[in-house]
Amino acid sequence: MTTGDPLAALATHALSFVKAGDIVGLGTGRAAVAFVRALAERVREGLRVRGVPTSEDTERLAQELGIELVGLEAEIELTVDGADEVDGVLNLIKGHGGALVRERIVAAASRRQIILVTADKMVETLGRGPLPVEVMPFAAPFCRRRLEDLAVKPTLRMHEERPFVTDNYNVIFDCATGPIDDPARLERTIRAVPGVIDTGLFLSTAALVIVADDSGVRELVRKTPR
To answer: 112-129: per-residue pLDDT in tens?
Structure first.
């Protein structure tokens, strides 16, 4: 059984996939913070790795902890990140932390993406919580109307009584989709709206999901078509 902090247990388990000399994508959010802190401890013990951050918050944390950072010119071996929802085939909803665009880019530039979640993030069908959609501020009124036409009930994300602004200077609509029966179709439809930058649907990106529950830490491996 897990003892103590499940995020710490996830982070420690994820460290077993990191080798000396690796370039590691560093995610954003609570699980990713736990991993960055665990990785920094290994760096202090002599492990030589470099990181590629997915957000300005992660960049600041990694620098404070002494992890050397590089950009996308590097060949990224793996990215370790969290997720807000994970379904039975390891499709994800991400972006509640607001870093979905950079998270997607770093994941795409990596040989594999490893996702760390607690058991409460596992769902039968995506859409239990809001689906983040990042849009250009100029296009926000238009995008809101188009999202309303798609019946996904967009709500502009706020922070301290002002619109939340991403590291890319965009805004986010959190969309109440309900259960998403066809995630690929919904992603295509939303991304086709001019002004939409990205959605929080991460489909077939995770090679491995590590889950912490009452019985311990377990690994879920994405099945690839033959």
So the answer is: 999 999 999 999 999 999
- Asked if 92 and 199 touch (Cβ cutoff 8 Å), the reply is no
Identify the CA nearest to 223 among candidates 120, 91, 105: 91
In the chain, domain spans: 6-121+203-221, 131-197
Could you tell me which CATH number the domain at 6-121+203-221 has?
A: 3.40.50.1360
* Candidates 59, 85, 103, 187; catalytic one: 103
pTM of the full structure? 0.95
For 131-197, CATH gives: 3.30.70.260
Instruction: pLDDT band for 133, please (50, 70, 90 cuts).
Output: very high
User: Is residue 85 annotated as part of the catalytic site, yes or no?
Assistant: no
Phi, psi of 163 (to 5 degrees): -60, 135
Quickly tell me which residue has 């926000």 as its tokens. Answer: 140
CB atoms inside a 10 Å sphere around CB 68: 12
